[in-house]
Amino acid sequence: MKVNNAEMVISAVKPEQYPDDGLPEFALAGRSNVGKSSFINKMINRKSLARTSSKPGKTQTLNFYKIEESLFFVDVPGYGFAKVSKKEREAWGRMIETYLTTRKELRAVLLIVDLRHPPTEDDVMMYDFLKYYEIPCIVIATKADKIPKGKWAKHVKITKETLDLDPADEIVTFSSETGEGKDLSWKILGKYL
Ligand code: GDP
């Protein structure tokens, strides 16, 4: 898919604010700062459409990016932020859970993890949550440019083992710097369209 036309449509906290176009949606889940916005930007060839934030956990809304009038990327606020109150964290949890478990347009979740490190407890929890609700999941192991190519296979293996990845689930080695994994990611998304 060659993408030229992308626009941010809406930031939503409640279902009434979700777009009503009926287009397929792919949600991006991952801890703050893992590279979710950079992933979106690379996928759509933009430098800074999806805001890359230097303040982890600041994005507390679901951001819907409409791509080519054919699908939405939904940037889910990152988990694993320590600085918010328990009340905020609970509200965040409810918002994400409502979206992920009730949204008819959701085709799959892209779980973004850092290839350099084993997935965190939060990553594992999110993966288990998706499996429990039988929500299709694609693992994107990003920041691959930060480790030598010769070590990718070893890191992919650790990622698979830590998540206890279902052999049916796909994992893509990705880099927002080099574009590694971009074509494969579009190919996999294509299966859900
Ligand atoms: P988000 O909070 O998950 O949306 O993370 P961002 O996309 O804002 O990225 C956080 C930081 O990691 C930024 O400084 C990015 O430039 C950097 N980053 C994200 N993806 C990559 C990547 O693939 N390679 C490298 N080298 N840096 C990345």
TrEMBL record:
<dbReference type="InterPro" id="IPR030393">
    <property type="entry name" value="G_ENGB_dom"/>
</dbReference>
<dbReference type="Pfam" id="PF01926">
    <property type="entry name" value="MMR_HSR1"/>
</dbReference>
<keyword id="KW-0547">Nucleotide-binding</keyword>
<keyword id="KW-0460">Magnesium</keyword>
<dbReference type="InterPro" id="IPR019987">
    <property type="entry name" value="GTP-bd_ribosome_bio_YsxC"/>
</dbReference>
<dbReference type="InterPro" id="IPR006073">
    <property type="entry name" value="GTP-bd"/>
</dbReference>
<protein>
    <recommendedName>
        <fullName>Probable GTP-binding protein EngB</fullName>
    </recommendedName>
</protein>
<comment type="similarity">
    <text>Belongs to the TRAFAC class TrmE-Era-EngA-EngB-Septin-like GTPase superfamily. EngB GTPase family.</text>
</comment>
<keyword id="KW-0717">Septation</keyword>
<feature type="domain" description="EngB-type G">
    <location>
        <begin position="22"/>
        <end position="193"/>
    </location>
</feature>
<keyword id="KW-0131">Cell cycle</keyword>
<comment type="function">
    <text>Necessary for normal cell division and for the maintenance of normal septation.</text>
</comment>
<keyword id="KW-0132">Cell division</keyword>
<keyword id="KW-0479">Metal-binding</keyword>
<dbReference type="InterPro" id="IPR027417">
    <property type="entry name" value="P-loop_NTPase"/>
</dbReference>
<keyword id="KW-0342">GTP-binding</keyword>
